[in-house]
Amino acid sequence: MNGKMHSETGAFSSDGMRAEILNPFVHKLELDNTYDKIKTAIFTVILLPFRVIVICYLIVTAWLIACIGLYGLSEEDLRRKPMTGWRRALKPLICFIGKLSYLAGGMAITIRGRQASRQEAPILVVAPHSSFLDSCIVYATKMSSVIVRKESMDNYVGKLINYTQPVYVWRDDPNSRQNTIKEIIERATSKEDWPQVLIFPEGTCTNRSCLITFKPGGFYPGVPVQPVTIRYPNARDTVTWTWEGPGALKLLWLTLTQIHSSCEIEFLPVYYPSEEEKRDPKLYARNVRDVMAKALGVPVLDYTYDDCRLIARAKQLGIPAAPSVREVSELRTHLGLERSQLELHVAAQGMSGRPRWVTSAEFFARLGISAADPHAQRLFDIFVQRSTGLASFPDYLLCAAFLSLQHAPLSQLLSYAFKLYDSTGTGRLTATHFEEVATRCLGLCQEDAQNTFRQADLDEKGYLTYDEFISYAQKKAEFCHIFATDAAHQKPKTQ
Question: Which fold has domain 307-489?
Answer without folding.
Answer: Recoverin; domain 1 (1.10.238)
